[in-house]
Design brief:
globular; Pdz3 Domain; single chain; six-stranded antiparallel beta sheet
């Protein structure tokens, strides 16, 4: 029989958890009119199972386990059973999360998820040990050093991959394009993510790469555009390629602010969940930094979350042409709810929708122009496969909702690309998608001039 003090703690814990109101991911003020979802009576039979299991661990487990450890593991279990993106953040995990949103942290530089008990790479981050070592989206990590990751918690595996800068780590990887497992040795480093990179491809046409969305991404974007105009002999740009390939997402506000840079008005994204506080709408403010110059957005299966918000908003407003392959399909919002000063939970609290009312969850953004996974100098067998949100175990199902405004945009087809060699001007000849995007921008510019001339005549 479980001791009375344990029963009291467990009932208090259960009652407290069902009454938590998640905070907005954008720190919006709580609305006094917010309503709490109807709470069903606690299933006492399951609660008894829980308390019995707790008692058995306390009395019968081969080693003594303290109450704190058992209860923290219980929270981890509750969170991991919801969906792939909800989790318990202990002291280290919470610290790492905050570091990631501000742009500096230690480790390898990869965005990962769980699939069938293994670690699956969503995307490597630009200019990190993972990218330099050739880690690709879709890679399955089955061993870290000499330890199997099978059924390991995601947070635990991430902790193993983090470490002192300069130390080595060996990853054993399964890659669909390879006949046998690969062993890749990497050297950990302090990951300083420069969110925005840019350069002129040639006169009047620019390339901007966003590797992830952070709190300062929009500021970096505005500075990049000003520098591009300056480098273009202070002449307005005639077209921009915005590269969001292998961008795993990041801060919601970062994506909204970036989309706002290119939009003069209208809805950017809205979110809906079970409670009033989860219903948020974000709209553009006046001013298009490019003054209507054509935009081509490059995406692929590694473009997720915040990347899909930007692509979806620009597509729905017909402000840009989306080119590449279907995106990852992560259309859910995670709220960081602090539990203590050093711990928190990351809880999925809403789905987000594009201006026309499309839910991206488990579907992704469908490009206007599709491109095959090849580069001009890349053999097809080296093209990598992409993991999508729909492939993750326990993902939220796609859910349609009544549109706020607009019509669904039909997609045209062609073919998708993907490698990210965005540090040299030579990638205009090796990066197929970039090559095609530049040709498209030139064509749009010619059409625009032709149309204006007709109007003048």
């Amino acid at each position: 029989m479980i001791k009375p003090q344990y029963l009291s703690v467990l009932f208090s814990l259960s009652l407290g958890l069902v009454s938590i109101l998640p905070l907005s991911i954008v720190n919006a003020q709580s609305d006094s009119t917010s309503t709490t979802p109807k709470i069903e009576p606690l299933p006492l039979e399951i609660l008894k199972e829980f308390t019995d299991a707790f008692a058995s661990i306390k009395t019968d487990y081969v080693e003594q386990v303290d109450d704190k450890t058992i209860l923290k593991n219980a929270i981890k279990g509750m969170m991991s059973g919801l969906d792939p993106h909800s989790s318990y953040l202990d002291e280290k995990s919470f610290k790492h999360l905050k570091e990631g949103t501000t742009g500096e942290f230690g480790g390898l530089g990869i965005e990962v998820g769980m699939e069938d008990g293994l670690i699956k790479v969503i995307s490597p981050i630009d200019d990190t040990p993972a990218q330099h070592a050739g880690i690709l989206p879709g890679d399955l990590i089955f061993r870290i050093d000499d330890k199997s990751v099978k059924e390991m918690e995601l947070d635990e595996s991430v902790k193993m991959m983090r470490g002192k800068p300069g130390t080595e780590i060996k990853l054993s990887i399964i890659r669909k394009s390879s006949d046998k497992p690969l062993e890749i040795t990497l050297k950990r480093a302090v990951i300083k993510v420069k969110s925005v990179k840019s350069r002129l491809l040639e006169d009047n046409f620019a390339y901007i790469r966003i590797s992830s969305f952070q709190s300062r991404t929009s500021e970096q974007m505005k500075k990049a555009i000003k520098k591009l105009v300056k480098d273009n002999k202070k002449q307005a740009l005639k077209g921009v390629i915005l590269d969001l390939r292998n961008n795993p997402g990041g801060v919601l506000n970062g994506s909204v602010d970036v989309a706002d840079i290119f939009l003069d008005k209208g809805l950017i994204v809205y979110t809906q969940g079970r409670i009033k506080d989860s219903e948020l709408r974000f709209s553009a403010t006046r001013g298009d930094a490019l003054k209507g110059a054509p935009i081509v957005v490059l995406v692929n299966g590694g473009s997720a979350s915040a990347s899909e918000i930007v692509a979806g908003a620009l597509q729905d407003h017909r402000r840009a042409i989306i080119m590449g392959s279907d995106t990852f399909g992560k259309g859910s919002v995670q709220t960081i709810k602090p539990l203590t000063k050093s711990t928190a939970i990351k809880l999925t609290t809403a789905r987000y929708y594009t201006p026309s009312g499309r839910s991206i969850q488990a579907e992704g953004i469908i490009p206007d122009i599709k491109l095959a996974n090849v580069s001009l100098e890349q053999n097809e067998k080296n093209a990598f496969s992409q993991i999508k949100e729909a492939d993750l175990k326990g993902h939220l199902e796609h859910k349609k909702i009544k549109h706020f405004s607009g019509k669904k945009k039909k997609s045209s087809t062609k073919n998708d690309k993907s490698t990210d060699k965005n540090e040299t001007d030579e990638d205009k000849t090796t990066d197929y998608a970039l090559h095609e995007a530049l040709n498209l921008l030139k064509g749009l510019n010619i059409l625009s001039h032709s149309y204006k001339n007709k109007i003048v005549k």
